[in-house]
Amino acid sequence: MKPMLPEFGQCGELFHTPSGTAFADIPVKDHQETWPIRSKRFRSWLRRGYYEATGEAASAPAVRSALDHLEARAQFDGPERAVCIRTAEHAGRIYLDLADEHWRAVEIGPDGWQVIGSPPVRFRRPAGMLSLPLPEPGGSIEALNSFLNLPSPNDFVLIVAWLLGALRSGGPYPLLAISGEQGSAKTVLSKLLKALIDPNTAPVRALSREQRELMIAANNSYLLAFDNLSGLPHWLSDALCRLATGGSFAVRQLYTDDEEILFEASRPILLNGIEDVISRPDLGDRAIFLSLAPIAEADRRPEADLWREFAIARPRILSALLDGVVHGLRAINQVQLKRLPRMADFALWAAACETAFWPTGTFARAYAANRRAAIESIIEADPLATCVRTIMGERTSWIGSASDLLRLCTESAREDASISPWAKNPRALAGRLRRAQTFLRMLDIDISFGREGRSGAHPTCCDCVPRAPVRTPPSARPGQKIRGRSRAGCGVRRHSFACWISR
After folding, report:
1. CA gap 192, 244 in Å, rounded
2. Rounded distance, CA 3 to CA 5, Å?
3. How high is the pLDDT of residue 418?
4. In Å, how far are 97, 103, 367, 380 from 130, measured between CA atoms?
5. Residue 352 is inside which H or E element, if any?
6. CA distance 187 to 191
7. 85 pLDDT tier (thresholds 50, 70, 90)
8. Distance between CA atoms of 245 and 160, rounded to whole angstroms?
9. Does 109 score more than 50 pLDDT?
């Protein structure tokens, strides 16, 4: 009697992920591989085992029956385990999947790093994933700088910090936004950084057209690199915010009416374009901005030569990054920063790693300068924020309704007929002011919001709280009206937006 498929196909451990996907560890020559039971790779392994045992091809019904049987065992009898892409953390150590044919990984701990054959964590290999080289000890991080077209030492410090952050599993990860004129090697820089952490047959990609596409890309790649962007739609800007700091996505499953596909993760993200494509403050607060200088004709070299030299240097550059991670794991519990920025976990990690390469405080100074420049750039790109900044440059406080602020902004713009859409709707103006308030606060313009109306039902009040005590204007005292409207808490019905702005 011919053997049944599950009998000869002796798998290792059968298990399932938290989402219910069935996986199997299968022995292949001198190592063990992990594949989804419904994947083509596992199906091929199953059919090959049957052929070697019987000399015949397994029928399609037999293969389907075997897959159903193994999937049931994995889901109902197997343990639940996490399956990661490229990086994972376990018991205080970081594991970097080399994605080579022997399924080796780098184990990184406070006492050093080493290449091992059977890591205690499970990795999966999506289509297109390429292998990392075996790291060679003794490398210097300065070897990386010769391949990058960076205008200042601070930019190199931020690049290295971003790479070190990408090597830590789980995030949060600051988004790296690269801009520069054509011919400034934006795409080459993106490919080089991708090759150091998560090489792929398609290193850079076009912008996702919908959230489903972005979710699929994040599910099948560790480091997302988007090339040659001209702008970011609002939905994508919000989605990138969630991916940078960790968030969940839910989309309707195809061919169903009431089922969803859930994806929860955090991913390093890189994007480039000729212009600054990030204009929304919430995404800008999670980003590192780099502006590349043009390359002189005399300094250009063939890209084939660049990649040949990079392939030689990459193993030692990778080992230098691993040394930085070892240093960070050793020092992370002793690091303290005077002020924590928005991406506090990343900043602490980068500060812990930096002394492997530079003096203490090098990263903090570079990061603070980059954030200050980003704030100025995004404020200048926001018509409302620029208008508020101009208004407050002439006074210490201002109070009024949304319509008052709209009229004042229009007057400040000298009633220009080409004024942006934000100036046509008081409600939209309030929403834009909420988005801009974080960056305006960094420029010493403080804004706070409250609710007014009966039972506090209407989000209508914006009060700006000064950093130093400022005497409340007489017109703003409780119980008194401001242009026919009263302050919050006086019990008088009010549906208008009021704003008190102070420096």
Report:
1. 20
2. 6
3. 44
4. 10, 12, 31, 41
5. helix 344-354
6. 6
7. very high
8. 19
9. yes
Non-local (6+) Cβ contacts of 289 within 8 A are: 177, 179, 276, 278, 370, 373, 374, 377
The three-state (H, E, C) secondary structure of 200-218, written as one string: ECCCCECCCCCHHHHHHHH
Which two tokens mark 289?
């901005």
Number of Cβ within 10 Å of residue 216's Cβ equals 15
Phi-psi region of 82 (alpha: psi -120 to 50; beta: other; left: phi over 0): beta
Longest dimension (CA), the chain: 97
Question: For the ranges 108-122, 159-173, 400-414, which has the lowest average pLDDT?
Answer: 400-414
- Distance, in Å, from the CA atom of 383 to the CA atom of 432, rounded to the nearest integer, reads 10
Residues 282, 107: Cα–Cα separation, whole Å? 35
Burial class (CB in 10 A: 0-12, 13-18, 19+), 146: exposed
For range 381-400, the mean pLDDT: 77
**The sheet that has 22-28: what strands, in order across it?**
14-16, 22-28, 31-36
pLDDT in tens, 260-285: 667 777 899 999 998 888 888 888 88
CA 157 to chain centre: 19
Distance, CA of 216 to CA of 199 (rounded, Å): 17
Please state, in angstroms and rounded to a whole number, the distance separating the CA atoms of residues 276 and 255: 39
Which two tokens mark 123? Answer: 């990795």
**Range with the lowest mean pLDDT among 177-191, 353-367, 411-425?**
411-425
Give the DSSP letter of residue 129: B
Q: Is the dihedral of CA 96, 101, 103, 107 positive or negative?
A: negative
CB burial readout 292-329, b (16+ within 10 A) else e: beebeeeeeeeeeebbeebeebbebbbbbbbbbbbbbb
Query: Considering only 199-203, 216-220, 262-266, 453-457, which range has the smallest mean pLDDT?
Result: 453-457
